[in-house]
Amino acid sequence: MHINSSSLPAIAKAHKVPQYDRVALKSGILHISLGAFHRAHEAVYLDDYLNLRSENWMIVGVGLMPQDA
Predict the structure, then answer these.
(1) Does residue 69 carry a pLDDT above 80?
(2) Count of Cβ atoms closer than 10 Å to residue 3 Cβ
(3) Are 17 and 7 in contact (CB under 8 A)?
(4) pLDDT higher than 70, residue 67
(5) What is the 3-state secondary structure (H, E, C) of the chain?
(6) Cα angle at 9 between 27 and 4, to 5 degrees?
(7) The dihedral of CA 41, 42, 44, 48: what is its sign?
(8) What is the torsional sign of CA 26, 38, 3, 46?
(9) How far apart are CA 37 and CA 14, in angstroms?
């Protein structure tokens, strides 16, 4: 199974999924390099926060190295 918007209902049966409108989000945080530390910390905390509050900002990731493409 691929994780994407169409698979969220099936994933939601066993896992936590976003409860906020991801389409309505606007750029609010610029993060240079989206490595494992970022995914394990900042992105998880932001997801928890957005599920609690009605904010509309998101993380925009920028990769600087060729392997980030």
Answers:
(1) no
(2) 10
(3) no
(4) yes
(5) CCCCHHHHHHHCCCCCCCCCCHHHCEEEEEEECCCHHHHHCHHHHHHHHHHHCCCCEEEEEECCCHHHC
(6) 45
(7) positive
(8) negative
(9) 24
Q: Which two tokens stand for residue 43?
A: 């992105």
CA-CA-CA-CA dihedral for 39, 36, 59, 32, to nearest 10: 160
Q: Could you give the CA distance from residue 34 to residue 19 in angstroms, rounded to a whole number?
A: 23
Entry pTM: 0.63
Residue 24 carries which side chain, given as an amino acid letter? A
Q: How far apart are the first and last CA of the chain?
A: 23
Q: How far apart are CA 17 and CA 51, in angstroms?
A: 9
Q: Pick the more confident residue, 11 or 69.
A: 11
